[in-house]
Each structure stands twice: as structure tokens, then as C-alpha cells.
Design a protein that fits this description.
It contains 19 helices and 38 strands. It has 764 residues and is an alpha+beta fold. The protein starts with a strand and ends with a strand.
Length: 764
């Protein structure tokens, strides 16, 4: 947001603080400034000059030699390439020194409006009328928009001037004279369908309008703050917006249908051609300004082209309205258009400001459009405004909050300089009334007044003191510590953590067979392709795999995030999940590696055969069971989802995992008696899971089996096709004795017999 220093000076009587010092004061007490720049540097020393004669230059391309009367600089010879350079016009001469151009010594230059910083017109040199005065250069203070987003009053020069007057102890000058507003009946009627969406709509009608360029002083001020001069009527609306933070709009009265202006929700699929020549299709959630024939503006965002001001306009309807901030913001996002007007309305502007803007226009219009006449009176429809409640300010409490004791008179002076109403209440208390321009969404409670006083006295004047309160160590909740331990474990196993958005596209959900209707749809997505809240971490992890596979042959990644599931008649639930991926361009045992990672989180888990999901390899997917409950799955991505290589996925439900995890580990004493171990190999079907065989061995062996460990797997001759040999090592022992050789043999024989009965072939 750009603020003109000369504009602020015109609103603060006796302001003598230099722009550089003022920038520092504003940063320390109001909003963060980003720098100062000079607008119209060439205006230094520039004078009006009359072109006396113009001669072509032999051999010169598109340039002429002009003899100009440059006032105090005398007669000058200037080489000029502007197409409108001709004898008899008055333009602007800038003494930039001498330079030979096309063989002619040119002394200074004749400048365009763009070169002078008066507008963006660079089609030719500027042509001055007899009444035009060349404005001096200006200094522009640039303020970070984010630091004033909570202050709707600071989006105009008058609001910033109020702050400057309070900071410097000067007097604020109000450019508005409400007494000029007419009391007669209006020529137009206003019909507001919903006063919660359009809080106020005010309008005046003018005739005998002359549409022409604005005076140079107005063009210069608009250009210096980043607004583009167009014509005097449009410039007037932008000027008042920049001064009072009140957006306005002018309609060509002859192009309106009927004598009533409607503020209403758009009809389904209603369209409007806007001033930017774009056609917008609207919905009932969008508020429009309409006449009897249809929309003439998108409320708070942009006007319509069919009712726009043109060179032929002679009668105008000047609108000044106040719209619901959320409604304007939603419409702006819906149609993907943000304007200077919408940015201000989004901040919750003061509804009392609409008539102030019209009063200001009544004073400016005769200056910029001589002969203009007001027709009728003020059209003004508005909701009932409830005055904001007064705030009881306890001065002792204020001192405790600030860390500094202030004289009651000083507190009162500060608040009154900011135009708060202040009255003495009971002893040690002040009754503070909030001004309307601070009451929309800014000041509402005593803590807000602490900030007002604190920033004005300067936070650097408050001695930093540690709070005298008892301190106790804080402890992370078990859920957070559990998630951190999971992250540490995965990182220790060589996995890199990734983080993805919680939003996915419909195409992504369909690509993995995820039901669209089970997703929560985002009404206001931050970007295209993020319209659904994810019910699985898989789409994000898959994108990570595809991107990283372009640069690495092997990698391991994991994400801990929330799956968001809709609940009928209740708030959505969020379930933390861990999803890990292991990618390799060469064939590798990725599934077993992921199983080892899962076992580190859930020791003793079982692997169960599972029906594949659409995105999984049809024969390489399993469920993970721990403590009799399914906690997740391991699978390989379907080959169609990857251009090359293989990727395996681990998905764990961390909520369930934490619930099943024992609170403490039971101590087991060190074994006193030695164990014995033996290997055995079972010949099984190639699709039979080693985990199933291991579980059966444990069941047959009973308590004497201390451990059953998978050793290896063999396929090929002499085994027939479709069969495999799986080798396990059984460690046997007893807590109260050393097992004898006959006991070990009996255990071995029992396992062999049990496996044989279950259909396994056995070999030692």
C-alpha cells in the first residue's frame, strides 16, 4: 500500500516531520514500512514551455527540431520524437542538459506524462491546458499490506493521517463536509434484498457531466500511489477510495434500465460482462448490483461494461456502498479476480463512510467537471446500526499489562488523539467509546486498548521484566511423543520424511480407486487440484515416488499425516497414519525391508494374505496383524503406476498402534539354563506365506520353542514348479532346566509330524 507524503501533509495541519523520519515513526507505532520512493523525479525544475516552431531534421528518423519558450530558462532548441510535437502547444520542458541527436544539439527535453510520473500515458509529450499547474515531485511511503490487514481505516490516506496526527501531536484535518449533502428526494430508488450482505447503499445523481482528463494534481496523486488515471469521473472514485478507504463506482445513467437499483444475490448462471472485458458466470452466493434488466456490477469487486462511463456520458449515478466482507471475499475467489475495491471491502469497512464519500465527491466534482449539476437528493438505504458498547478500562490493570505506570491524563490524551471517546468512570477507570471505523473487526475489548496505548508510548520505552509467575516443566502428551518416536525410528532406518498437502484432486482419488463421495469437498480450494480432503496418504506418496524416481535409482521415504474421514451428522475425524515407500529400479526384496520397519514399531506382528486393492500388485500385498487386530498393510504398487522400477508401500494406523502398544515392558530375567537349536525345512506351496508356516510351528512346538526364526527360502530343481522349501531355526529351552537330548528329539519329531498332518512335506 502506497501513501503520498504530500497527501498526508495536506490532511495534518503543521506537519513538519520529514518523510524519512515519518516512515520510521509509522513503523514503530502503526505499521511496517518497506521504504520510500520519489514520484515524479523529473518534475524537479520542470516548467511549462510553449512550442514556437517545429522543423524536420534532414536524415532524422521520426524526430523534429523544436524551438520552445521555456520561461525562466529562455528559448531552447529541443530534438523531440513525439508524434504530437507541433507549434502552438504548451508542454513541459525538463532541463536535463545538452546532447547531440541526429546532428542537432538538443538542450533538455520535452516530456510525456509517463516520464513525469503524472500518468501512464507515453503516447506523446504532455499537452497542458491554461489551467494546468505542474505539480511538484512527491515522496511515497510504501507500507506492507499484511501489517494493516486488520485496520480497514488505514487503507486510505485520511486514516493514515489520523495515525500521523496522533503520533506527532498535530491536528487532523477532515476533508469531508457532511453539511453539503442534499435533503431532497432522490432521482433513484435503492432496493436491498439482504441487509446482512449489503449493509448500506448510498447514491447521488448528477447531470451536465463532462468526461475529460483529470487535473494534473489529481493524476499525479493517483499515479504516485499506484492507481491509473483514466478520466475525471473514474479518477474521482479512485481518488476518494485512496483518500477515505471507501470504494465507489459511477454508472452512466442513460444506460440503466428503470429508476431502481437492486442489491441482490445473483441468479443461477447469471452472467455479466465486466469492465475488464471478461464475462463472468455467477451463482446465488455472489452479490450483484442490478437494474431492471440485470446485473450492472459485481458487488464490491468490479463494475459492468454495459453501464460504464464513456466520453459520451452526460448523466451519472454515483454509488457508495458497504458490503459484507466475507461475501466479497468469497465472490472474489469464485471469479478469480481481486481488485483495489475488493481488497478494501474484505477488511470490513465502516458503513458510516458511504455518505462521507459522497459528500467529498460533491466538493470535488465541480473542480474536475465544471458545470456539473446535482439532480435530486441522497438515496440511502441501510441496516440498523447498533453503537459499539463502551469498554471499561481499569488503569491499574493497564499498568500491569503494559509493565509501566502511566498518568491517567496521558492515557486519556493518547486515546483521544486516536479519536476514541473517553470519559472518567469510577475511580481508576475510564469509559472508552470505540469510533465506528475501528469497531468493525479491530477494537472490541480492553486488551485492544492496551495495544493502542502501548504502541503510542513506544514499546521501546517499557523496561523488559521477566514475569513473576511459578514455572513448571511442560510435558508432551503421549500422542505427540509416540509420533516423534515413530519418526525417529523411521529416520534411523534410512527413511527420509516428506510432507504433503491434505488436499487431493478428484482425478487422483479416482486413480487409486478411492470413492469420491467419501471425501470431504473443500468449498474454497487454495488451488486447482486440491478440492478434496484426503482419506489416504497414498496419492501424495505416489507423487513423491514418481518425482524422486526421475533423479534417484533407490530411495526410502515416509510421511506421518492425517487421513480425514467424513462422519454422518458429526464432525470429520482425523486419523494419524504412517506411510512409507521403498523404491528401487532393480528387483529387490522391498516388501521384506518394509516388514522389518513395521516389526520395529510392532514387534511380533503377523502377516496375513489379503485381497489386493486396485492400485496394488495382484500377488504382492498382505495385511499386518498385531495383538489380534489389523493395523495396516504392506503391498507393492501396481506396475502400471510406475514408468520403471518397483515400489513397495507400508501403511500403518498409528492411532490403533498406540492403543495396542503396552504402557510398559514386562521384565524377564536373564535365562539361567542353556538352549538348543535345530533347523528344519518344510516344502510348501509357492504362494504359502512363511509367516503362516512359522505360526504353525510355534503352535505345534508349544512352550518349549523359545524362538522360531525364518532362515531362507529355496525354489528350483529338484523341487517341482510351484513348490518352495522354507527353512526355519527353532531354538528350544525351558526356564527351569536344560533340555535333554531325548526332549529335543521329541520336540523335533512332534513338529515334523504336525507339519506332515497339515500337508507339508518335511526334510531335515
Amino acid at each position: 500500500m502506497k501513501f503520498s507524503y504530500s497527501w498526508i501533509r495536506s490532511l495534518v495541519d503543521g506537519l513538519d516531520v520529514p518523510a524519512e523520519s515519518l516512515e520510521r515513526l509509522i513503523t514503530m507505532k502503526t505499521a511496517e514500512c518497506e521504504g520510500i520512493e520519489t514520484a515524479g523525479e523529473l518534475l524537479v525544475g520542470a516548467v511549462a514551455a510553449r512550442v514556437e516552431s517545429v522543423e524536420p531534421i534532414e536524415g532524422g528518423k521520426h524526430v523534429v527540431k523544436a524551438i520552445v519558450d521555456a520561461g525562466k530558462y529562455g528559448r531552447k532548441t529541443v530534438v523531440c520524437g513525439a508524434p504530437n510535437c507541433r507549434a502552438g502547444i504548451t508542454t513541459v520542458y525538463v532541463p536535463l542538459g545538452s546532447k547531440t541527436i541526429a546532428g542537432v544539439l538538443s538542450d533538455g527535453m520535452l516530456a510525456s506524462a509517463a516520464e513525469l510520473g503524472l500518468s501512464r500515458d507515453h503516447a506523446g509529450i504532455i499537452e497542458l491546458s491554461p489551467s494546468d499547474q505542474i505539480p511538484p515531485p512527491d515522496q511515497v511511503i510504501d507500507i506492507d499490506n499484511k501489517s494493516i490487514t486488520h485496520r480497514p481505516d488505514l487503507w486510505g490516506h485520511h486514516g493514515m493521517a489520523r495515525e500521523v496526527a496522533a503520533i506527532t501531536g498535530k491536528t487532523l484535518r477532515d476533508p469531508v463536509n457532511l453539511s453539503v449533502l442534499p435533503t431532497a428526494g432522490s432521482q433513484v430508488k435503492v432496493d436491498i434484498e439482504d441487509l446482512t450482505l449489503c449493509l448500506r447503499y448510498s447514491a447521488l445523481v448528477f447531470e451536465n457531466v463532462t468526461v475529460q482528463p483529470s487535473p494534473l494534481w489529481m493524476q499525479h496523486r493517483l499515479t504516485s500511489v499506484g492507481l491509473n488515471p483514466i478520466n475525471n469521473i473514474v479518477d474521482l472514485t479512485n481518488y476518494i477510495m485512496a483518500e477515505l478507504a471507501q470504494p465507489m463506482h459511477a454508472f452512466d445513467r442513460e444506460k440503466l434500465h428503470g429508476d431502481t437499483i437492486f442489491a441482490r444475490p445473483a441468479k443461477p448462471n447469471e452472467t455479466i460482462i465486466a469492465l475488464n472485458d471478461e464475462t463472468y458466470t455467477l451463482a446465488p452466493s455472489n452479490l450483484v448490483i442490478a437494474d431492471a434488466a440485470g446485473p450492472i456490477a459485481i458487488a464490491g469487486v468490479i463494475g459492468g461494461k454495459n453501464s460504464a462511463i464513456s466520453a459520451a456520458t452526460t448523466t451519472i449515478v454515483l454509488e457508495s456502498a458497504n458490503f459484507n466482507a466475507s461475501s466479497v471475499r468469497k465472490t472474489s475467489v469464485d471469479i478469480k479476480l481481486r481488485t483495489d475495491a475488493s481488497m478494501r471491502f474484505e477488511k470490513s469497512q465502516d458503513p458510516h463512510n458511504t455518505v462521507r464519500a459522497l459528500a467529498r465527491a460533491l466538493e470535488l466534482l465541480p473542480v474536475i467537471s465544471p458545470g456539473i449539476r446535482l439532480v435530486g437528493g441522497l438515496a440511502d438505504r441501510h441496516a440498523d446500526f447498533t453503537p459499539p458498547p463502551t469498554i471499561d478500562l481499569d488503569l491499574d490493570w493497564l499498568a500491569r499489562k503494559l509493565g509501566r505506570v502511566l498518568d491517567p491524563g496521558e492515557v486519556r490524551r493518547i486515546l483521544e488523539s486516536l479519536h476514541f471517546g473517553v470519559e472518567a468512570a469510577r475511580s481508576g477507570h475510564l469509559s472508552v467509546t470505540i469510533p465506528s471505523w475501528r469497531a468493525t473487526k479491530d477494537v472490541a475489548m480492553p486488551e485492544d486498548l492496551v495495544e493502542e496505548v502501548g504502541r503510542m508510548i513506544g514499546y521501546d520505552s517499557i523496561q523488559p521484566t521477566p514475569p513473576l509467575v511459578p514455572c513448571a516443566p511442560s510435558y508432551d502428551p503421549p500422542e505427540r511423543e509416540f509420533l516423534r518416536s515413530a519418526r525417529r525410528l523411521m529416520a534411523a532406518r534410512g527413511y527420509t520424511e516428506v510432507s504433503n498437502y491434505s488436499f487431493i484432486s478428484e482425478a487422483s482419488a479416482r486413480g487409486f480407486g478411492l470413492a469420491i463421495e467419501k471425501h470431504i469437498r473443500v468449498l474454497n480450494p487454495i488451488a486447482a487440484g486440491q478440492e478434496l480432503m484426503r482419506t489416504s496418504l497414498l496419492p501424495g506418496i505416489h507423487s513423491n515416488i514418481v518425482e524422486n524416481a526421475k533423479h534417484f535409482d533407490d530411495f526410502r521415504i515416509f510421511e506421518i499425516g492425517h487421513e480425514i474421514h467424513a462422519q454422518s451428522g458429526a464432525k470429520p475425524t482425523e486419523h494419524p497414519h504412517l506411510m512409507a515407500a521403498l523404491y528401487s529400479k532393480e528387483a529387490s526384496e522391498t516388501l521384506l525391508e518394509l516388514k522389518r520397519a513395521a516389526e520395529a514399531l510392532a514387534p511380533g506382528l503377523r502377516v496375513l494374505q489379503s485381497k489386493p486393492n486396485p492400485w496394488e500388485h495382484p500377488t504382492r500385498c498382505v495385511e499386518l496383524q498385531w495383538r489380534e487386530q489389523v493395523i495396516g498393510r504392506i503391498s507393492e504398487l501396481h506396475p502400471a503406476l510406475l514408468d520403471s522400477g518397483r515400489a513397495a508401500i507400508l501403511d500403518l494406523d498409528l492411532t490403533l498402534l498406540q492403543e495396542l502398544k503396552p504402557e510398559r515392558t514386562t521384565y524377564k530375567p536373564v535365562r539361567r539354563f542353556p538352549t538348543s537349536a535345530f533347523d528344519l525345512s518344510a516344502i510348501a506351496d509357492a504362494r504359502d506365506l512363511a509367516g503362516n508356516i512359522e505360526q504353525r510351528i510355534r503352535q505345534i512346538a508349544g512352550e518349549l520353542a523359545e524362538n522360531v526364526d525364518y532362515v531362507r527360502e529355496f525354489r528350483g530343481a529338484p523341487l517341482p514348479e510351484g513348490r518352495k522349501s522354507v527353512t526355519f531355526r527353532v531354538t528350544a529351552g525351558a526356564p527351569d532346566r536344560t533340555l535333554s537330548s531325548p526332549e529335543i528329539t521329541a520336540l523335533y519329531d512332534r513338529i515334523v509330524a504336525g507339519l506332515t498332518q497339515l500337508g507339508y512335506e518335511f526334510r531335515a
